[in-house]
Amino acid sequence: MVQFFQIAPDRGHILNLLLLICNRHILLFICLIGLLISGTSALATTAVQDKPSLKSKISEESKSDSKPDLRRPNALLGPTVIHFLGIILDIDSVNAKTQNFDANVYVELRWEDERLAFSGDSHQNVNLNEIWNPRLVLINQQGKLNTALPNIAEVSPDGTVILRQRFTGKLSQIMNLESFPMDEHLFAVRFAAVGYNEEQLKFVPDFRNGLHGGGIAKDLSLPDWEVTGFEAKSSPFQPVGKVSMAGFVLQSSAKRHLAYYLWQIVLPFSVVIVMSWGAFWISREQLGVRIGFATSSVLTLIAHRFVLSTLLPGLSYMTRLDYFTVGGTVLVLSALVTVVLGSCYANKKDAATAKWIDIFARICFPTLYLIILIIFLHIEF
User: Which of 48, 197, 207, 324 counts the highest number of beta carbons within 10 A?
Assistant: First the structure.
């Protein structure tokens, strides 16, 4: 028993010593964990505080001697993807003589640029000259082009850039007028990115509110045209040879209304042609009246042709309306020749032949005119 009590204090001392050592290690471990946590939170706080706003980034670049970074985003990873949305708000007029049309177009572009990411919850507006942009131009612009919106871009905190613009002005359009006035055309609004080809930029139609890349307004300022379709697609612009620029096109198909030309051109023209046939029902003794009918019809058609020439440019081919008017003019001129021929036979006392000519003309000329009218209305050119 005495020995036991002598050893016990030694054991207790050892246990106390071990507990003291363990407590010191635990305290040291806890201190290290605390320092690690505080350091991490401090770094995170510093990172948040050090993340500059977009305006501060741009202001620092403007103060420095270096120019803004205008390289396209992710240039080393392939083509920069740009989503586009275009809406043709109105087409005010179409001029076949000058081969152009007046358009009112809204365009929206969207792309990602991580270099412009900033801290905050709301977007910021930035001048286009201070950031990279695709340098969009209207290829078929003709004359002065007006823009309604300022040249700024909307930048979101995650670096998403949205560019909006509205264009109004005359746009050129090559028209094949062989079927005029029953023709149908594609009216294209063509955009291109200056200095970038399709390997550097990729335009992709944006899907929004049921629109695939865009649309066209239902009510247009075109009383003599009917819109039959619309398409928005990526389409590189290649002016000559191997020169190519990335771009896209908004194109709408429209068909000309025939009713206006039937009332304003075909009907008056037909009246003049039918008037020339009156000479075949006038007595052959009244030669001056018969020739006067035919001659006045020829002169009226010639004046009518001058009016029609103002509607179309100088073409190297004949239109559907040209075939109709030329056919009618030939008929009226033939009527004049027929009247003169019948009068010659009447003066030679050959009344039977003169009468036969009149009867033949009364049947032949209306039939030929009906054939010309059917060809004008139904035959494809």
Answer: 324
Any bridge partners for residue 216, and if so which? 88
**Closest alpha carbon to 191 in 231, 247, 147:** 247
How sure is the predictor about 368, in pLDDT bands with cuts at 50, 70 and 90? very high
Q: Are strands 211-212 and 207-208 parallel, antiparallel or unpaired?
A: antiparallel
pLDDT tens-digit series, residues 212-246: 999 999 889 888 899 999 999 999 998 888 889 99
pLDDT band at 57 (very low <50, low <70, confident <90, very high): low
Taking the C-alpha atoms of residue 67 and residue 374, their distance in angstroms, rounded to an integer, is 69
* Residue 253 contacts residue 227 (beta carbons within 8 Å): yes
Q: DSSP letters of 307-326?
A: HHTTTS---SS--HHHHHHH
Domain with residues 75-256, CATH architecture: Distorted Sandwich (2.70)
Cα separation, 273 vs 307, in Å, equals 17
Instruction: Give the gyration radius of the chain's Cα atoms.
Output: 42
Residues 238 and 110 sit within 8 Å (Cβ to Cβ)? no
Q: Does the structural domain 260-378 have CATH classification 1.20.1250.20? A: no
3 state SS of 333: helix
Contacts of residues 237-241 at CB distance under 8 Å and 24 or more positions apart, as own/partner, are: 237/139, 237/190, 237/192
Q: CA-CA distance, 348 to 341, in Å (whole number)?
A: 11
Gap between the Cα atoms of 68 and 115, Å rounded: 11
| Distance (Å, whole) CA 274 – CA 332 | 9
Between CA 9 and CA 31 the distance in angstroms is 33
Contact status, residue 320 vs residue 179, Cβ threshold 8 Å? yes
By the 8 A CB rule, do 170 and 102 touch? yes
Closest CA to 271 of 347, 200, 332, 205: 332
Q: Report residue 161 as tokens.
A: 């850039």
Which of these, 225, 212, 135, 107, lies nearest to 173 by C-alpha position?
Answer: 225
Confidence (pTM): 0.75
β-bridge pairing 201-205 and 80-95? parallel
